[in-house]
């Protein structure tokens, strides 16, 4: 008696239209979190994404899942900008400057109220995105310090706090109309980072661990 060979089933891949819907939801949520804060109604996000409420809940069973995906998406896009700056810009400080301006365009300031939320900050996806982003920013700063172009009394936390604070005002206060000021003020900040330092900073360099413990 011959035993039939089991047929291996290929893993089912999401359909292209399902992936597009998910991407539209994340993009719409990111826009609305920037404009109105992380408590915007999910049905409004569905309307902005041009999908039904059921499609939102099929992809994201609760608000925390959607917020986490938006945070990961913003950090992934920010990391990609850091990688491009490292690969395409020969001057170390110009690479750092390019990254900071690109991070502002990603509106990383919108992450602050979302990260302060109740969702699991130790989720593996979130941890992986955070570690990748921090590693790349550290690489940008190390390269600029090695070239004696970046003052030595600053760290990644200093850079990320300033970029987040300057990238947009709080939600609901005309953040989109203030865009014309963002890159001007960021450039003033970047000029203050150049070596040699023209003043002594109070306190010590702020690391990302300092921020997490604060």
UniProtKB/TrEMBL annotation:
InterPro entries: Homeodomain-like_sf, HTH-type_TetR-like_transc_reg, HTH_TetR, Tet_transcr_reg_TetR-rel_C_sf, TetR_SbtR-like_C. It comes from the Bacteria. Pfam families: TetR_C_43, TetR_N. Keywords: DNA-binding, Transcription, Transcription regulation. Residues 19-78 form the HTH tetR-type domain. Residues 41-60 bind DNA. PROSITE patterns: HTH_TETR_2. Transmembrane segments: none annotated. This is TetR/AcrR family transcriptional regulator.
């Amino acid at each position: 008696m011959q035993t039939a060979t089991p047929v291996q089933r290929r893993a089912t891949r999401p359909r292209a239209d399902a992936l597009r819907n998910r991407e539209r939801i994340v993009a719409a949520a990111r826009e609305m979190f920037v404009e109105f804060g992380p408590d915007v109604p999910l049905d409004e996000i569905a309307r902005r994404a041009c999908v039904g409420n059921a499609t939102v809940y099929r992809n994201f069973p609760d608000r925390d899942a959607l917020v986490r995906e938006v945070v990961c998406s913003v950090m992934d896009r920010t990391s990609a900008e850091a990688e491009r700056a490292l690969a395409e810009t020969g001057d170390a400080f110009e690479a750092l400057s390019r990254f900071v301006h690109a991070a502002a365009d990603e509106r990383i300031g919108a992450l602050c109220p979302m990260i302060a939320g109740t969702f699991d900050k130790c989720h593996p996806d979130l941890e992986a995105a955070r570690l990748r982003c921090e590693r790349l920013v550290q690489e940008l700063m190390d390269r600029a310090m090695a070239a004696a172009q970046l003052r030595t009394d600053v760290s990644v936390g200093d850079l990320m706090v300033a970029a987040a604070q300057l990238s947009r005002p709080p939600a609901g206060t005309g953040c989109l109309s203030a865009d014309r000021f963002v890159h001007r003020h960021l450039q003033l900040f970047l000029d203050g980072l150049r070596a040699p330092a023209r003043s002594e900073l109070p306190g010590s360099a702020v690391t990302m661990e300092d921020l997490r413990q604060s």
